[in-house]
Amino acid sequence: MDMKWVVLGIVGAAALWIIALYNRLVALRQTRKNAFSDIDVQLKQRFDLVPNLIETVKGYATHEQNVFQNVTEARARVSRSGGGAGQERIQAEGVLGSALMSLFAVAENYPQLKADQNFLQLQAELSDIENKIAAARRFFNAATAEFNTAIQQFPANLIATPFGFTEEVFFELAAGEAEAVHTAPKVQF
Fold first, then answer.
1. In the chain, is it the N or the C terminus that has fewer CB atoms within a 10 Å radius of its CB?
2. In angstroms, how far is CA 183 from the centroid of its own chain?
3. pTM to 2 decimals?
4. CA distances from 58 to 77, 88, 163 (A)
């Protein structure tokens, strides 16, 4: 009879341990999803700001059609990628960021545009949104790293695999953005 209680106690402790581990993994996955939702809010604001920015620049730089087309195509790619934190969406957002940098590079060639109040306001809004996206990316990537680490560590990996917890992708810079970050800006007076 005593051995029965010992075995039952061990089985009960093991069950509680599995439940606690599973709940921790679920909480980490939810933290990551919440972090992407924060990014998503900022990306939506940037997405909505793009047409206004294009129209303002178009008025000054009508012969820069290729740049406008790239920004429009990048914005459409984001729309097609759907919601969520999948690799396709993350890459599409990176392409849009690179296209916007090209648009601002074009704007540098037009002094009248750089002085236009609408353009300055849109540029300030976009700069603010980009800063918020960067902060949200850092939080998202930290949550992703914590989640990925948790599902790979022993003994959680014994629970993670059977319950379908898989490694998640980070929100990284696109190739064009990465190059721009490592290149010093050209300043002219």
1. C
2. 22
3. 0.63
4. 21, 29, 52
- Residue 134 CA to residue 124 CA, distance in Å, equals 15
pLDDT digits (tens, 9 = 90+) for 44-88: 888 888 877 777 776 666 656 677 777 778 888 877 776 666 777
In order of their start, the domains of the chain are: 2-179 (1.20.1440.20)
Helix or strand holding residue 16 (H, E): helix 2-58
H or E element that contains 61: none
CA angle in degrees (0–180, nearest 5) for 110-79-108: 10
Among 176, 47, 42, 172, which Cα is nearest to 102's? 176
- Give the helix/strand (H/E) hosting 31: helix 2-58
Handedness of CA 170, 104, 116, 78 (dihedral sign): negative
As a whole number, the mean pLDDT across the chain is: 79
CA–CA separation, 64 vs 54, rounded Å?
11
Give the pLDDT confidence score for residue 178 in this predicted structure.
47
DSSP state letters, 132-145: HHHHHHHHHHHHHH
